[in-house]
Amino acid sequence: MRDWDAHTVKVEKSAVALPETVTALLAQLEEEIEKLAKTSPLAALRAARRLEVTASQAGYWPAQDARRDTTAGQAAAALGVNDDVVWKLLARLGRWSPYC
After folding, report:
1. 95 CB contacts (<8 Å, ≥6 apart)?
2. Contact 15, 79 (CB under 8 A)
C-alpha cells in the first residue's frame, strides 16, 4: 500500500495543477454530498448524477481542444493517467468514439 500511495502522490504532483479555488470547491462539494448521503442517499445520488452531467458539459470543449492541440502522451502526463486511459477519457468527454 505504501508503494501505491507513494506512486499516486508522485503522479498527482506531476499532473497539471488546479487552481486552489477549484480544488476547494470540489472538496466542499464532495463533503456536502457525503453529508447528504447520511440523511438522503437518493438525494446524494441525484447530486452525484448532476455533478456527472456538469462534468460532461464542462469537459466537452477542453477535450476537443486537447484532442486537436496535444498528443496523447502530453495529455496523459498532464492528467496523471496513461495513454490508453487518457484517450478514452477525452473520447468520453469530447463525445467521439475512441476506436476511430
Report:
1. 60
2. yes
Residue the block writes with cell 467521439? 96
Rounded CA-CA distance 14/17 in Å is: 8
Tens-level pLDDT at each residue, the chain (100 residues): 887 777 677 778 788 999 999 999 999 999 999 999 999 999 999 999 999 999 999 999 999 999 999 999 999 999 999 988 999 999 999 999 988 7
3-state SS, residue 21: helix
Query: Residue written as cell 495513454?
Result: 83
Task: Measure the CA–CA gap between 29 and 23, rounded to whole angstroms.
Answer: 10
* Calpha distance 48→95 (Å, rounded): 20
- Which residue in 16, 89, 100 sits closest to 56, CA to CA? 89
Distance between CA 47 and CA 94 in Å, rounded? Answer: 22
